[in-house]
Design brief:
Layout: H1 2-18, E1 26-28, E2 34-36, E3 44-50, H2 59-70, E4 75-81, H3 93-104, H4 123-131, H5 142-154, E5 170-173, E6 179-183, H6 189-200, H7 202-209, H8 223-234, E7 246-250, H9 253-266, H10 268-273, E8 286-293, H11 299-315, E9 319-323, H12 325-332, H13 337-343, E10 349-358
Parallel strand pairs: 3-4
Antiparallel strand pairs: 1-2, 3-5, 5-6, 7-8, 8-10, 9-10
Length: 377
């Protein structure tokens, strides 16, 4: 029996890993019919496991208010009742639906009951958990501390796995199917709403999706895409529209290779540590070099230009990483002078930074951001 349980868990994990996106999954609706999540392509999704007899059940009201407010802009809430936590979702899906309609007038899609942990884990939830594991409860919150105490008594290491910990855990999915964030039951709906609004707006979603990419496919970026990216850059704001910047786009693979040979000779130990070393720019097939006046008075303008280009690249499926380390090397190593000469930097300007750009070969998670640094006066 134990071997069968392990095999079932392994099969669930394989199904989750083999799925290319959330749209590969099918779920059963309240009528028992299969529904492909591909039907929700282009929508922002909030996926939640619910219960009708839980201390968090009143969240149904908040969820319905959220749906009423934002469904017209593209939000869909997908409700999956689950009876695994304190047996707090008893009854049939029909009975659950009647309860939710009578008490909270919910209108968002509700699906058949589901298991989110253990041997019966639905592949959808195996996928969601693989994408966004448990990040911990807010122990400063009364309910967060209560759940932590309760679960730790049952399993001292409960927080070491990605399992769903309780009812009303939520996953936010972007319009293009990325699992963006996981929320625990006590996380504020107002915070979730702010994140949803970021995903509903294409510009804001693009800002939130951008990551620093440090692994690239061996595939040069097409000229027409590079031209679009540079055009986005030079349309950044600048002081009095002086546009005190100079941009050089490197397509010459031999130039990148030659200067990387100089780097390898000067830094053999560092290169040896990188088994996948392709060039000194994190292996990027293309490079955007940004120059600004030597006096530093227009570095801010050049930075705004770079941000525009990185966001433009993100919007068309390219990865970027702004780099200053290679600049220090280029300016300090005499053997690399040929690279700077090739840039034809204007008189009185300096090479400020470079942007590695290419098709990404990784999908790094977002690093935490400290909202406490922001104050409203």
């Amino acid at each position: 029996m134990k071997r069968l349980f392990i095999c079932l868990l392994a099969l669930t994990a394989v199904l989750a890993v083999s799925a290319q996106s959330i749209y590969d999954f099918k779920v059963k609706n309240e009528g028992g019919q299969d529904v492909s999540l591909a039907e929700y392509k282009g929508k922002v999704l909030l996926i939640v496991n619910t219960a009708t007899r839980c201390g968090f059940t009143p969240q149904y009201k908040e969820l319905e208010q959220l749906y009423d407010k934002l469904s017209g802009e593209g939000l869909v809430i997908l409700d999956f009742p689950c009876n695994q936590f304190g047996q707090q979702a008893p009854g049939t899906i029909k009975e659950i639906r009647e309860f939710c309609t009578a008490n909270y007038n919910i209108r968002f899609p509700q699906f058949d009951k589901i298991e989110v942990n253990g041997e019966g884990t639905h592949p959808l939830y195996a996928y969601l958990k693989a994408k966004k594991g448990f990040g911990g409860f807010d122990l400063g919150d009364k309910m967060g501390k209560l759940l932590d105490d309760m679960l730790r008594k049952q399993n001292a290491d409960y927080d070491k796995n990605a399992d769903i910990k309780w009812n009303f855990t939520k996953f936010l999915v972007s319009r293009d199917g990325r699992v963006v964030k996981r929320y625990e039951p006590m996380d504020k709906i107002s915070d979730i709403e702010a994140d949803i609004r970021m995903e509903l707006n294409p510009v804001l979603s693009n800002i939130m999706a951008r990551r620093s990419v440090r692994k690239y496919l061996d595939r040069p970026v097409e000229r027409e895409k590079l031209e679009v990216i540079v055009r986005a850059g030079i349309n950044a704001p600048s002081a009095r529209n002086w546009q005190y910047w100079a941009v050089r786009v490197i397509e010459d693979q031999k130039l990148l290779s030659d200067v990387s040979e100089v780097y390898k000779q000067a830094n053999p130990d560092m290169v040896q540590q990188d088994k996948n070393f392709k060039n000194m720019f994190r292996g990027a097939p293309n490079l955007i070099c940004v120059c600004a006046p030597k006096d530093g008075g227009f570095d801010l303008d050049a930075g705004l230009l770079g941000q525009n280009m990185m966001l433009a690249a993100e919007s068309i499926g390219l990865g970027t990483c702004i780099q200053t380390g290679p600049v220090r090397f280029l300016l300090s190593n005499e053997k690399a002078k040929f690279f700077l000469d090739r840039l034809d930097i204007p008189e009185g300007y300096k090479l400020l930074y470079v942007i590695a750009i290419g098709y990404p070969d990784e999908a790094p998670d977002a690093k935490p951001r400290d909202a406490s640094k922001v104050k409203f006066l």
